[in-house]
Design brief:
Layout lengths: L2 H13 L4 H8 L3 H8 L8 H14 L1 H18 L2
Helix pairs in contact: 1-4, 4-5
């Protein structure tokens, strides 16, 4: 799984710009699963859930997503990863 994508999702869940119940309803991801991902109870969630959430947050907050993706790309270049 792309660690940067996972962190992107965790950051958005932690920011709580949208209630998790709404995220659950609009993504189809069960609330309990979303809660486990957000609270990091599930350290390695399935790629389908992470991708679904990343797409959702990118659609909801395009300017924030763009800035975070640019920073992630800069970090990759700086570390040579």
């Amino acid at each position: 799984m792309n660690t940067n994508l996972h962190q992107f999702v965790l950051d958005h869940l932690a920011a709580r710009r949208i209630k998790w119940t709404r995220v659950s309803r609009e993504t189809g991801i069960p609330y309990e699963t979303l809660k486990k991902i957000g609270h990091r109870t599930t350290p390695n969630p399935g790629v389908l859930h992470v991708q679904t959430l990343a797409n959702y947050f990118q659609d909801q907050f395009p300017s924030v997503a763009q800035a975070q993706m640019a920073q992630a790309a800069t970090d990759v270049v700086a570390t040579g990863a």
